[in-house]
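Researcher: Good morning. I'm working through a list of sequences from a screen, and I'd like to move beyond sequence-only analysis. For each chain I'm collecting a predicted structure so we can compare shapes side by side. This is the next one on the list. No need for commentary yet; just the structure.
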Amino acid sequence: MNFPKQSLGTGLSGRSKEKSYPQNISKKLEIPKIGEQLKIIPTYIENAEFFFASIITPTWKQDLTKLNIKLNDLAVKLNMKTFDEENPPKDGELVFSEYIDGNFYRAKIIKRYEDTNEFKVFYCDYGNFKLVNEKAVRRWDSQYDYLPFQAVLCKLFNVKDNPYNRLEVEEYLDKQILGKDCFAEVKNNDGILILDVKTEDEKSTISKELVKKELAFPLIVEKIKDINDINECFIKRDKFNIPDYFC
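Model: Good morning. Structure tokens for this chain:
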């Protein structure tokens, strides 16, 4: 799959007052421990801070491929249940959503746009978002609950997004880590996986390089209140005692 750029949506928790439709699966990924060394494949880049990735295990690719082949068997696709105008998919509902390659993938409804009858969906195994119409969505089938969702929301360690350099950040991260095997150390696992991701040659980290290239701020910059020019943060780095971790 390719990974189109969409804004990181809210509602991934699937919270809703209604409980009559599937919003999550019981099978969960094991939470990595702090200090653990992981091998990951980033699948979607939101900005200099947040991204989605798959954690590589010995059977990761094989298990997901088998599930997708089973899900897209012709007989299975022909028997998938559709939605109708009176009972459209609800925000937070698990579904199967067709992608541009013609295959269906496990997904979640993030938002319904009633004026166009379109839906913003999140692909649970890949981390990307797409706007689709009702014809591209099918009802969930619990027999595909057996494999944990593979897209893990991650945050790069000790960096703050610089909104003025989004294009450069996208180009750099797309080239460095998107779709590539990467090594990462778990720095925090409380609600979101905070990772220190190594560069391809493993001599540095992505966080360090983003700050060196002035594509992101060190996280401590959040506490600086008296800077008028955002670029001045880097000139005043020593004055504000920013850790030499990034130097």
